[in-house]
Amino acid sequence: MLQARIYQPRREFILDAAVELAPGDTLPITGASGAGKSTLLDGIAGIFPFTSLSQVCWQGQDWRRLPLHRRPFNYMRQNSRLFPHLNVGKNAVFGLPPVRQRSREDQEWLEELRERLELDAIWTAAADEVSGGQARRVMWARTLARRLPLVMLDEPFAELDSAAAMKLLNDLCIWQQRWGFSLMIVDHDAQRLREFSVQPRILQAGRWV
Amino acid sequence: MKARLRTGLRRLAWGGAGAAAMAFFLYPFLGLLTPVGPWQWNAGVPGSTAAAVRVSLGLTGLAMLIVIAAGTPLAWQLSRQQGWRRWLWEAPVLLSMLLPPLALGLLLALSLGPGSGLGRMLLRLGLETSNSRLAFVVTQIYVSLGYYVIAARAAFAGLDSEWETTAALLGQNHWQTFRRVTLPLARLGLAAALSLAWVRALGEFGAIVITAYYPSGMPVQLWINLQDSGLPGVMPLLVLFLLIALPLPWAAQILAARRAAPRS
Question: What is the pLDDT of chain A when averaged over all its residues?
């Protein structure tokens, strides 16, 4: 269970939003540009130091006491990029242990991601040789390769055409059912988020509408 | 037509400026062609040239390993400091570079030599701090560390902190992030920093001549040869020095550039 309240002053407004998310549940978030959607996810992840009024608890554990790299979530930020010194394959497996230490389940999951995200053809390409849409798919693989109980995706369909986006959305729902992770997904396209069984919540000037 | 002419003229101007700069850098080397009489390879002392080369290469190599090991974390730390903290941390580094080498040699001899408390203590442990390999290496580290740190700091500071955040979000701790992301991305800048430190240390004369006249490295040997045999004793060592000093900076840059563009 995720219980969070993020209080983060911004130039135009103060983000003050509470989130509760049970294991396996989905929270689709939408809102206009600059409404605080990315700040909310960054706040929950704790990328910037938590303000004194912010609080993030996961399964009763306070994330203030956990360093960033130990917090159990996968997070694809809106401005994520591929590491320029690594090729596509090395980017995709960046968060995984070396091959020899990988479980069979991890390896099979990686193979599935590789196939579903159509990465085979570009697996050995340099990071700067792939298109924006391809890079986005590599980021999907990089984010999801580690199977963690909370997944946060910020504008994950950016640079993807609508058909590819719908396919990924369907895959995401299937993967969520299979792995049972909680999902927070931010998309400016409210229509697309209606594909989820849960109504998207709207953030406006730092508050839930 | 006019545009092409303008482009041609611009290229010519840039090319001319570049060629003039190159000519300026290379001009002093014309001195090597000066007829100074037959070159003397050992300037009267058999084996002195080979010994100087051995001392310079071996001990400077050792000094560089220590400079990299000590300077890299310090440079990273400096690159993460802001405002007055940065100035405070950087002041001692800059101070080590500001002093004239001769003055620095005198200070090192006074503070580390056998007359100093630390020097006496080390001497009791069997470590000579004057005219010894230890004095040579310590002096080289002191004169080159600042150059390495300042250049490496710039290399680290030029990196977008977003890369380190991304690595942490993918479960990498500080050390893994540094090893897998920060170091490889700063590689070209670090290679330049190492080149700078290497040429600074290898060519050091002013401080070394005070602290470690023996074992004579190449710059001190040049001085000895000049005194003993004049220019004919200097020229061969000068050519050797150039041949020895250049490969490491080149190799470092080539290696870093190759690794910075992965195609595996």
Answer: 94
